[in-house]
């Protein structure tokens, strides 16, 4: 067991890792100058994530959501019902605050300083902040897409594997469902997810397609939330892995680990990150408590590597304009197909069994009733 752990980043991955470690008697030091804060994202948590990580059910201010309207690039609509159990939409500020507080209450230490660099030395790591240096035997990078830890050890996430998003936190959307609209000719989508007292409204695409984001957002808002009451706006770079070989890059060594957005472990098709952030934290905790941080690479590759790679391979196909139009048309006529799309959005449908299921249902779905 290693008892000298520093976690850089207090988002869901870092905070949940600190919480699990503390429950095992390992009290990590968490470095973060900004969390908890609102994050540019929809804030949707899938039913699968809620089942696997029940702690998420206790996030204050959560809103149950069990319907999502899916809209094709040409405007064809289908209402999807979230399968099995309702998902939640949360404020990331509330979710991050809750998980961080659980870690602190369990014994983890929070250092509210910004880490500007790290450097290896013979027995561990030097962690540099604006106020001084710290030493640690093991370091965990949970510091997001622009991770200082990742940059120092394996290099930044390449630009071709990045996306961009902008949007608003706003009032004026009074529906009881979310909206996802695919964009003409772009790898990404616009969204609205209603929260407890306001909504997250945004657009996200691959970084090289980002030049028209403001126009796409304005058009989307005018169509679906014409009376929007803007509270604040956001913009961010996000992981959007398009090259399956990216997942061959190591995520751990004998005294280091990277998890969450820092590892690029975000669903390449949907952008869901909280699920993989907590899953990675759970696996990293297992490796660290056994005194072997390097084992994390074996664990995550066994548990969810294949799904990330398959999702990555499907991106060009799924975001093909003609296929999107066809899929949403068929789903509007077939409950079976609508269920498949709903389960894809919520991680209930494995990508490895996807096409077998689609082909089996296609004949009946195309019958005109």
Annotation keywords:
34% helix, 7-stranded mixed beta sheet, FAD/NAD(P)-binding domain, 11 helices, 6-stranded mixed beta sheet, alpha/beta, single chain
Protein described:
This protein has 369 residues and is an alpha/beta fold. Among the domains are: 5-38 and 92-158 and 242-311, 3-Layer(bba) Sandwich (FAD/NAD(P)-binding domain); 317-365, no CATH class. The protein is built from 11 helices and 19 strands. The protein has helices spanning 12-23, 47-52, 92-105, 148-153, 213-224, 274-289, 295-303, 305-318, 321-333, 335-345, 354-365, and strands at residues 5-8, 29-31, 44-45, 63-65, 67-71, 77-81, 87-89, 109-111, 115-121, 124-129, 132-136, 138-141, 162-171, 178-182, 188-194, 199-206, 229-239, 252-253, 256-258. The strands form 4 sheets. Strands 6-5-14-15-16-13-17 form a 7-stranded mixed sheet, sandwiched between helices. A 6-stranded mixed sheet has the order 8-2-1-12-19-18. It has a 3-stranded antiparallel sheet with strand order 3-7-4. The longest helix has 16 residues, at 274-289. The protein is globular. It starts with a strand and ends with a helix.
Question: What's this entry about, in short?
Answer:
α1 runs parallel beside α3. This protein is of the alpha/beta class. The chain is globular.
């Amino acid at each position: 067991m290693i008892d000298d752990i520093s976690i850089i980043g207090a988002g869901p991955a870092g905070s949940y890792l600190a919480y699990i470690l503390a429950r095992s008697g390992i009290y990590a030091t968490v470095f973060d100058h900004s969390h908890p804060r609102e994050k540019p994202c929809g804030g949707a948590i899938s039913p699968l994530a809620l089942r696997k990580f029940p702690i998420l059910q206790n996030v204050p201010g959560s809103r149950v959501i069990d319907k999502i309207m899916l809209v094709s690039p040409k405007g064809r609509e289908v209402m999807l019902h979230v399968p099995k159990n309702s998902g939640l939409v949360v404020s990331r500020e509330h979710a991050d605050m809750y998980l961080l507080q659980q870690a602190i209450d369990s014994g983890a230490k929070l250092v509210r300083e910004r880490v500007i660099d790290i450097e290896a030395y013979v027995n561990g790591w030097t962690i540099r902040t604006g106020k001084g240096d710290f030493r640690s035997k093991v370091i965990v990078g949970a510091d997001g897409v622009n991770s200082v830890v990742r940059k120092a050890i394996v290099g930044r996430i390449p630009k071709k594997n990045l996306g961009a998003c902008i949007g608003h936190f706003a009032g004026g959307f009074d529906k009881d469902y979310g909206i996802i609209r695919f964009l003409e000719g772009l790898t990404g989508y616009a969204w609205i997810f209603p929260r407890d007292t306001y909504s997250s409204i945004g657009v996200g695409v691959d970084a090289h397609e980002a030049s028209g984001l403001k126009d796409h957002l304005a058009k989307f808002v005018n169509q679906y939330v014409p009376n929007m009451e803007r509270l604040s706006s956001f913009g961010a770079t996000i992981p959007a892995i398009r090259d399956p070989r990216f997942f061959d890059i190591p995520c751990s060594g004998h005294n280091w680990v990277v998890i969450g957005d820092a590892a690029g472990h975000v669903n390449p098709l949907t952008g869901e990150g909280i699920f993989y952030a907590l899953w990675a934290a759970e696996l990293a905790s297992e490796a660290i408590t056994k005194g072997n941080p390097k084992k994390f690479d074996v664990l995550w590759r066994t548990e969810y590597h294949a799904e990330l790679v398959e999702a990555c391979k499907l991106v060009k196909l799924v975001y093909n304009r003609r296929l999107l139009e066809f899929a949403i048309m068929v789903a509007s006529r077939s409950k079976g197909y609508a269920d498949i799309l709903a389960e894809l959005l919520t991680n209930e449908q494995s990508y490895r069994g996807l096409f077998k299921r689609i082909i089996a249902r296609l004949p009946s779905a195309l019958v005109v009733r």
